Amino acid sequence: MVANADRSWLELPEALTALLIPLPFLFASLAYPTVIGRAQKAPSTLSEAVAESAPAVESLAVTTHSQLLHALTLSSATLILVGVIANISSSLQPLDRRKSDATPGTFNLSTAPKRMAYNVLSVLFPFYASMQLGGARVALALLTAVAAGLGALDRKPGKHTPWDDFRRTLRTRKITCGAVALAMVADSLAVGSASHPLGGYSSLFMSIFLVPPPLPTAGWSLIMGSQGQTSYASEGSGRASLPKPHSPLISSFEDTILTIASGLGLTVVALLYSLVSSSSPSFSHHTIAFTTLSIASATALVFLSLPTALRSQKHVGLALGTLLVAAVHSWEQYSTSTVLWVAFPLACFGLVGAVMYDTALPSVSAHNHGRGHSHSGHKHEHPDHHLHGNHSRLSAFLIARATPGSIIHSILIEKDSRRIAYFGVYVAFPNHPVPRLGGCLIL
Questions:
Q1: 363 contacts: CB under 8 Å, gap ≥ 6
Q2: Helices (H), ranges, 108-149
Q3: Are the C-beta atoms of residues 325 and 143 closer than 8 Å to each other?
Q4: Could you tell me how far CA 208 lies from the centroid of its own chain?
Q5: What is the DSSP letter of 231?
């Protein structure tokens, strides 16, 4: 379980995730440009200000209606496309695999409305925030939240309430939270607090802490060294794996059906809202092209991304995604706002530094607070590595050799996930002495 020291500085899952997370919201912002940060001429007299106030209020109301309609359109199309592709992919699988995935009697109608509402909000919140704040701000916030493991975007074994996630974030990610808050305040001061919609920041907060985007949940795998006997699981090496990472939208046949139903229901809501608000989406070639790209990239994000890949030690993927966001934002704001054109890259640099500091802090503190014990005339260092619960010497031995921040390290420091890991290895290799020893020590 020792981390591979020869791993590349940037692997495909990390690079792909870093590019896929910002793209849907950058394309959405290009399809439906927001008014945030655009230069406006200040009125020179009081009468001029009064004359301009009424049209401005009316324009703001129309813009708000169109922004919500655009978010509804993008969300409904994304949900339908994700569900249809997952259904087609499932139908192409072997018959025995489809039977195992679609077990009869598992569809629970009583929880269907709640799950459909959760699906809708998980996709709608970030798109609506992009309509109000701009895609670059939302993309930067989500990249930071995923890489640092903020709020509900850091899913751990067991059940956790949103309040538990919020407290854990404030306790373990102080610098990142402070940097995000400072960036929001500076952004509001730069563009003017009156023009900054509160709904955009509220949607972004909900998307991070309450209803996270439907990103694939990370799967875990346990790899053991050379075995003395062959088994069905390996030839020369054994592997006990939990299910492959899947988005909550497509993790089962039931979830796929609910995703399609959520998209169709949201389409009906968008049509009704269009009739009530007397607004309609734009059908220009520019809008259609970037809308299609936004929906396609959001679908690829659900199927191809791996959020935990961004939590590497060097954070190359985070830097790559942030560089893309900063470049697109600078291109958008080059001719509109000089202040934002300069301030946004600085905010990107500060957030990346805050994430690197917070995620490196546990490993540093573990070595700084290691306990020295003298045995037979020489000293051994035993870092605590923040192990949860009572642990055996085997767990301490493995933790000391796992790379902090890696998947193996995250499994071993949690008491419940550690026991599940040992039990999985024990079941997979019942006749091997090492898993039997580990199972006896921990269980």
A1: 404, 405
A2: 112-133, 135-148
A3: yes
A4: 8
A5: B
**What is d(CA 358, CA 45) in angstroms, rounded to the nearest whole number?**
49
Least trusted range by pLDDT, from 39-43, 68-72, 154-158, 161-165? 39-43
Q: What is the pLDDT of residues 361-409, one digit of tens each?
A: 544 344 444 444 444 444 444 444 444 445 677 777 777 777 776 677 7
Pairing between β-strand 371-375 and β-strand 238-241 as defined by DSSP bridges: unpaired
Residue 363: which of 326, 312, 316 has the closest Cα?
312
Q: Which residues contact 176 (CB under 8 A, 6 or more apart)?
A: 144, 148, 150, 351, 354, 355, 358
Residues listed for the chain:
443
Q: In 284-428, where do the E strands start and end?
A: 371-375, 378-382
pLDDT at 282: 73
Average pLDDT over residues 318-344: 80
Closest among 438, 46, 39, 28 to 240, alpha carbons compared:
438
**Dihedral angle, C-alpha 10, 157, 149, 383, nearest 10 °:** -80
What predicted TM-score, i.e. pTM, was given to this entire model?
Answer: 0.71
Rounded Cα–Cα distance for residues 305 and 217 (Å): 10
Residues in CB range of 254: below 8 A, 6 or more apart:
102, 106, 107, 108
CA distance 409 to 2: 10
Beta pairing, strands 221-224 & 238-241: antiparallel
Strand-pair partners of 224: 238
Taking only the tens place, the pLDDT of each residue in 166-215 is 888 888 899 999 999 988 887 777 665 545 567 888 999 999 999 999 99
The Cα–Cα gap between 341 and 91 comes to 48
Task: Give the residue among 402, 406, 414 at the shortest CA–CA distance from 442.
Answer: 414
User: Cβ atoms within 10 A of the Cβ of 200, count?
Assistant: 21
Residues forming a β-bridge with 234: 231
DSSP H or E segment with residue 217: none
Tokens for 399, please give them: 């933790």
Are 372 and 379 in contact by the 8 Å Cβ rule? The answer is yes
pLDDT bucket at 106, cuts 50 / 70 / 90: low
Q: Name every residue whose Cβ is closer than 8 Å to that of residue 291 and which is 6 or more positions away in sequence.
A: 27, 28, 31, 73, 74, 77
